[in-house]
Amino acid sequence: MSAPPPYEAKGEAPPYPPAAGQAPPCQPAADQAPPYPPQAQYPPQGQYPPQGQYPPQAQYPPQGQYPPQAQYPPQGQYPQAAPAQVVVIAAQPVHFGRYPVNMTCGNCHAQIQTQVQYEIGVLVWILCLALFFFTGICCFIPFLIEGCKDAVHHCPACRTLIGRKSAM
After folding, report:
1. In terms of Cα–Cα distance, which of 162, 166, 152 is closest to 112?
2. Does the pLDDT value for residue 70 go beyond 60?
3. Of the candidates 160, 153, 146, the residue with the CA atom closest to the CA atom of residue 115
4. CA atoms within 13 A on the CB side of 37
């Protein structure tokens, strides 16, 4: 039997033919360092290395003994507390309608339910004129119907005008 080729004896793959002017893909160029450090060789299977070749293992404290505990400041001395964080809550926009709304008053900052008053607006006058031209009578009816009027919201605590819902 003949001797094995040199690459099989080393446990390496056979070399590939390199391209012109380039190093083989699995071997670094002569002027470059290998891409990673060489790994330690393991002993052959079934054989154990002599004692002392492995790194020492971490030692645990003897049974019943514990490692030292964290030190706390003496009584009466407390660590400085971090400053409190400010939380900003964005208020949702309030949509005023024909009926009272639960909200926080922007003027007195009280939690309220708005008071609604109905006032004569543009829609009432348009309906009044239309009824007058088409019927000649009954043009006063839109002034009696609250659904045709504008809804005005006020704060019951401070009487501030909060919002308005136009009927048109």
Report:
1. 162
2. yes
3. 153
4. 3
Half-sphere exposure in the Cβ direction for 78 (13 Å, CA): 4
- Domains of the chain: which residue ranges? 120-168
127, burial (CB in 10 Å: exposed 0-12, middle 13-18, buried 19+): middle
Q: Alpha-carbon distance 147 to 78, whole Å?
A: 65
Going by the DSSP 8-state scheme, the letter that residue 94 receives in this structure is: P
Q: Which residue has the higher pLDDT, 1 or 57?
A: 57
Q: Give DSSP secondary structure letters for 12-72.
A: PPPPPPPPTT---TTS--TTS--SSPPPPPPPPTT--PPTT-SPPPPPPPPTT--PPPPPP
Tell me the whole-structure pTM to 2 decimals.
0.45
Cβ atoms 150, 121 nearer than 8 A: yes
Total number of residues shown for the chain: 168
161 bridge partner residues: 154
Pair 132, 139: CB distance under 8 Å? yes
Backbone angles phi, psi at 8, to 5 degrees: -75, -30
C-alpha of 47 from chain center: 56
